[in-house]
Amino acid sequence: MVIRGVLFDFSGTLLRVEPTAHWLRAVLDEAGIALPGGESARLAAELEEAGALPGGASPRTVPAGLRELWRERDRSAERHRAAYTALARRVPLPRPELYDALYERHMRPEAWHPYPDTADVLDALRDRGVPVAVVSNIGWDLRPVFRAHGLDHRVDAYVLSFEHGLQKPEPGIFELACRALGVEPGEALMVGDSRHADGGAAALGCAVHLVDHLPRDRRPDGLRPVLDLVDRTG
């Protein structure tokens, strides 16, 4: 096959969300809340175990009453917010308004940081004439994040689950992305960090390349093999 278009996942693939402790500290600081001793670290650990940070660690367990909402969370903005704030509420915080503040914080550009090789790999694909789409299971508009980090001009299309009522691994979301790039599924490469979600593109005929969802300092060049795959098929 010849790769004529590349589809990228967002979180854990192109960008990484801030650590849970930073996420909580930013919200506490904005609220003017100072916690004693290791209280902030304890709450951050409990929020991480609950899976309350979108783009962060998955929940250790999902309560029975939330399981259906959790499975469908990426189909709409309302479900996404409801699912993650419900998980956060499993952790007692000093003020009730902090749960919504935490959710709002994770949508801000400063909560996200590109992997070290993201811009270079996207530039190299553009130089090769290979269009790029971002295909994300998400409940909010990530375009401002790409603009803030100077990446928006490197992306040709965004296919976001909440805007279409589709979520990976459903083939339809990958089909929309291929159509947006003007390529056939058999000419597309899906790059992501989830074998289950991103691997769903294979059912449509796309090639799939998986990367490790690691902290930025532990994955300085995890995207560069994408260029080798494109060059090998060109």
Automatic annotation (TrEMBL):
<dbReference type="GO" id="GO:0016787">
    <property type="term" value="F:hydrolase activity"/>
</dbReference>
<dbReference type="InterPro" id="IPR036412">
    <property type="entry name" value="HAD-like_sf"/>
</dbReference>
<dbReference type="InterPro" id="IPR006439">
    <property type="entry name" value="HAD-SF_hydro_IA"/>
</dbReference>
<dbReference type="InterPro" id="IPR023214">
    <property type="entry name" value="HAD_sf"/>
</dbReference>
<dbReference type="Pfam" id="PF00702">
    <property type="entry name" value="Hydrolase"/>
</dbReference>
<keyword id="KW-0378">Hydrolase</keyword>
<protein>
    <submittedName>
        <fullName>HAD family hydrolase</fullName>
        <ecNumber>3.1.3.-</ecNumber>
    </submittedName>
</protein>
